[in-house]
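Sync notes, pocket subgroup
Present: LS, DG
LS reminded everyone that the earlier model was apo-only. Rerun requested with iron/sulfur cluster included. Inputs:
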Amino acid sequence: MNTQDKNQVSAFEVLKENSNYLRGTIKESLENPITGSLAPDDQLLIKFHGTYQQQNRDLDEERLKQKLEPLYSYLIRIRVPGGVTTPQQWLAIDALADKYADKELKLTTRQAFQFHAVLKRNLKKTIREINDTLLDTLAACGDVNRNVMSSANPFESPVHAEVTDDARKISAHLSPQTGAYHEIWLDKELVAGGEAESEPIYGKVYMPRKFKIAIAIPPRNDTDVLSNDLGFIAIVEKDILKGYNLTVGGGMAYTFGNTNTFPRVADVVGYFPKEKIVEVAEAVVVFQRDHGNRSDRKQARLKYTIEKYGLDYFKAELKRTHGIELEASKPYQFESQGDVYGWTQGADGYWHYTLFVEGGKLTDFNGISTKTAVKEIARIHDGTFILTGNQNLVIAQVSTTNKKKIEAILKKHQVKEGKSISQLRQHSIACAALPYCGLSFAEAERYLPTVVDKIDVILQQLGLFNEPISIRMTGCPNGCGRPFLGEIALVGRAPGRYNLYLGAGFKGDRLNKLYKEMLNEDEILATLEPLLTDYAHNRNEQERFGDFVIRKGYIEAVPAGNQFHS
Ligand code: SF4
């Protein structure tokens, strides 16, 4: 276990150690009728249970005038390993969003559901009813392994099914074992045979920081696998899954003004046969558990541990602790990082429809009733729904008869599809940001559609409407929408002001770089228009926008995360 001097560890480490396996005083905090908030320590501990305390920042001024405390509420993240849910689960989750949250369903960039605006008095009921659907929120946040992502559609081929199964196995193996979750939220109802009060993998202080895992199947990098602490790239020969290339040390976040922090694309470190995937995942988690920085949370992700110790030491540790010897990495080729929209037919003969969900928000708004449409589809659907890593939804395993019915439902609710949506919008991602995220400096999910509307006008004029270009917007540089892998990225600096980053690889294999700072909307459009004009007229055949701006010298390529600021 980590031998870091106890005097040097951060207050958060002490809190975890003294929390009695994540219990703290959460129960008492929930029962306190005086405030909508939890005690400060419990606000940190409930993250491990899949929920964050937030406040509606839109209402802060008004509440202050009325001498009221902020309107506290809770984000709840529902873990869905591999993103696969049943129609029954979909209907139940949709109903819970109406009953306890803000009536909107957010699909996250990690294949999870997210509720916003759940009040404290409803928090326990909501989590309990989520568990009734056989989904849960345990470890959806906090210093543990998060939802394990896998390539979007397990029904596309037997290899895709096998990979999704591997994602589930890893998720189960790395789930926290504490009984606190069941005790606090479920009154221990779901516990069979009692819970062991120990954490065989994590120990009492869990991970130094959050830990993210994803799997991708080339040629699609639809999970942005290289943005994860730990990643697996499937190696397939003649339609048979042979094994995985292991990737380590990816991560998106940095802190403005702190050049010791930086986003990083993971290193591809070696190959192993598929049977070892759970063992390898555990070995990497154990490495980070024992070597991660526990005194400075801004240096605590695996990417900094890898920078500090180097890959040779890392590989030697895998061998020492788990007897794992990696072979040389196998060749692989990514072609894109987004989803493939519309209908496709799987190896099993069933149809699969990938629906574009802007900003991951299923809403009924402006005459387009995406939330209602999917609810109606769930009522007649006998296949599954799959949440993608790009905030979209696959309606999977559809029979030819139901295909027509689904098409009719989408049309009735005016859900936009195909060529009516620009390729830029189809490759857009936005984090939640305002009004609930306490860390956001600026809008993201509520604002990106407006910015894209305006860039779309430029793209139409230039004949680029159907040219795939990725754009990502976040309210701060914490990286929830993986902004530093967007060919165009807008990261909030202040209300209405964004840093513009350019030059990422379209395949999710190269970071972008800061181009201009503190731009307002007019400045963003005025900056992008000449670049897009040049691209429209002077790009090479099949040259991507991110590659073009580097070739033309607008921005330098970032060869590695530790050179992001140079
Ligand atoms: Fe909040 Fe920043 Fe994450 Fe966006 S990227 S959700 S603003 S922490």
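DG: The first helix runs from residue 11 to 17.
LS: The chain has three domains: 146-338, 342-420, 423-563.
Action: DG to write up.
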